[in-house]
Description:
Blueprint: E1 2-11, E2 21-27, E3 47-49, H1 51-58, E4 65-69, H2 79-86, E5 91-96, E6 109-112, E7 127-132, H3 139-142, E8 150-154, H4 163-175, E9 180-181, H5 185-189
Parallel strand pairs: 2-4, 4-5, 5-6, 6-7, 7-8, 8-9
Antiparallel strand pairs: 1-2, 1-3
Amino acid sequence: MLKVVEIFYSLQGEGIFTGVPSIFIRLHGCNLSCSFCDDALHKGDYKTYNFEQIFNEIKKYPAKQIIITGGEPSIYDLNEFIDFLQNRGYFVCIESNGYKIKNIKKANWITYSPKDWENIRKDGWSELKFIVSKQSDLTKIVNIQSDKPIFVQPLNFFDKPDMENLDFCIELVKKYPHLKLSIQMHKFLGVR
């Protein structure tokens, strides 16, 4: 059983899969309370679903890419659920702060967005995503080298882009071309 805040269909707006039609499963709860969190929904109401009930919701949509988000998905052991989805033909992506990577290790793709830049995991992820503002101390992230994608994403407002932070991030990736820009495309398009 999983605590599900919402299931919806939209475009992935972040990272390597930007623009890909995806089914989002937002889970309830997080191990952190970040002041900049742009999604208070994971703290509110939820429904408890078993795997079949979730499958009955997601099969209404034509996409085969699932994004499990939150909150923090790795507070749950999701490996059995990931197997369940993969056995039905879904490509499963997880967005995580890295709390318990072992709980999500079977995912096809893990977007790791660490909040503690002093203790960044070296493995267990497919792409890195840092939420950056013009006040961020970038010393740790600009020196990370990896053959996997490393994204900087501007700290945005809840429902729209922060253009000052976006401009800062554009200049940052131009200065450090091993970094990539992720912009939260959905906030520019006004979609979920």
